Amino acid sequence: MQKSEGSGGTQLKNRATGNYDQRTSSSTQLKHRNAVQGSKSSLSTSSPESARKLHPRPSDKLNPKTINPFGEQSRVPSAFAAIYSKGGIPCRLVHGSVKHRLQWECPPESLSFDPLLITLAEGLRETKHPYTFVSKEGFRELLLVKGAPEKAIPLLPRLIPVLKAALVHSDDEVFERGLNALVQLSVVVGPSLNDHLKHLLTS
To answer: Considering just the CA atoms, what is the radius of gyration of the chain in Å?
Structure first.
C-alpha cells in the first residue's frame, strides 16, 4: 500500500514538476519571442530611411526631390504640372553631369509669348522638381530672346497677378523665384512696369 502510495506521490510530483518545466520553458520561449520582436522593431526604426530623415546626406542638396510616378499622389497635379506632362511647354529638362539645362523643341524667339510666358510664371509657384527648374529657367530664357519687350508688354496685366501670387506664397523658395522673375521682367519691359507696381505692393 505504502509503495503504491509512494509511487503515486512520485508520479504526482513528477507530473507537477513536468508542468512547472513546461511553464518555465513556455515563458522562456515567450520572453525570447518578445526580445526578437523588440530587436526587429528597433532595427526598423534604425533603418537607413529613418536615419536619412534624421541626418540628411550632403548629396540630397545635389539631388532635389523628384516626383515619384509610383507613389500615391497626395493632391491633384497643378495646372502647370498637367500642361508640362502633356507636352504643352515646348522645352524639356536635360540632366547634365554638373548642371541642368533646358532644351527647346524650336528656337525660343519663334515662340508666341501668349500664353507660354504666363504658364511659366504660374509654374514659379511649384515646389517639386523638375517643375521648379523648368518654370524658372524657361521664364528667364524666354525673356532673353530678341523682341521680348514687344511680346511681354501686352501681357503685363495678366502676368502681374500671377507674379504677385508667387510673392505672397508661404514657401521662401517660391517667393525668391517670384522676386527674381519680377526683376528679370522689369529689366525687359522697363518703365512699362511702373503702372502695375501698385498691384504688387501689398499693405
So the answer is: 34
Grouped pLDDT means (10 residues each) for the chain, 203 residues: 50 51 54 53 49 60 58 62 86 78 89 92 90 91 92 93 91 92 93 86 60
**Contact of 111 with 138, CB cutoff 8 Å:** no
- The Cβ-side half-sphere exposure at 164, using a 13 Å CA radius, reads 14
What residue spans define the domains of the chain? 77-201
Torsion sign across C-alpha atoms 130, 136, 137, 138: positive
Residue 49 exposure: Cα atoms within 13 Å on the Cβ side = 3
The pLDDT of residue 91 is: 86
Residue whose C-alpha is closest to residue 193's, from 202, 181, 184, 185 = 185
* Cβ contacts of 117 within 8 Å, gap of 6 or more: 139, 142, 143, 151, 152, 155, 159
Long-range CB contacts (< 8 A, 24+ apart) of 91-96? 91/134, 91/138, 93/130, 93/133, 93/134
CA distance 99 to 173: 19
CA angle 94, 64, 101 (to 5 degrees): 20
